[in-house]
């Protein structure tokens, strides 16, 4: 493990989880504790280390902070806070899924506590960033890779009022049935044992529906969803099913189109994409300027 030294690890006693909350935070050179509020991008995957670990996989040659500073050097964005909360067990064996766990007792993995990761994110992580780091309360973006993409889209579907933009690379998006009104019964995406604490065993179709980002999008306020900038990318079709989530990404884009939402990403399926951190970082490099434009529109509208 090689954690970027520019990232600061924040730990606090979480009243929601009953164990320590953990998050890496990057502050730009302009940041001052008593300075003006700064826009914030929440980067999700699972463990808090993943976006700032240079050796997260063999493909990687930097971190999200390197990406941010490259884009900043080109003058495409201004100062931003980057927040990378831990939304998994401390050993990264059990994903949090941005879900309040049904059966946390089914795992002995450290760092789970009550397993109420959705409540933890919305009621502790977001307020902490605003209280302790001066994050702008009206300029929040969220992004994710793989299950982080699932969580980013789920967060926006649950609370579209909280975010101005969302991006995801090669997200693990479940399919839905009956016009998006219920989860697809035989989708195998979330059947693995590591999801048992979050979703229960055996799986319950109603519960799967309540945690399916597609179903949640179709329940959400469409006007609020359309105010958000969406950037969805994924790997190419020819490396499905193990090398990319092409079909799941295409499915999400079709659902968004029915809601009147267009994809702001310049290319959706990356021809040379793969389910790797190197390509996830490349997605972030394309997405950050679009997030920043969304921030500028919101902040200008308040002046």
From TrEMBL:
Which molecular function terms from Gene Ontology are attached?
acyltransferase activity, transferring groups other than amino-acyl groups
InterPro entries on file: AB_hydrolase_fold, Esterase-like, Mycobacterial_A85_antigen
Check the record and name the SUPFAM superfamilies matching this protein. alpha/beta-Hydrolases
Pfam families reported in the protein's UniProt record: Esterase
Report what the protein is called.
Answer: Esterase
Q: Lineage of the source organism?
A: Bacteria, Bacillati, Chloroflexota, Chloroflexia, Chloroflexales
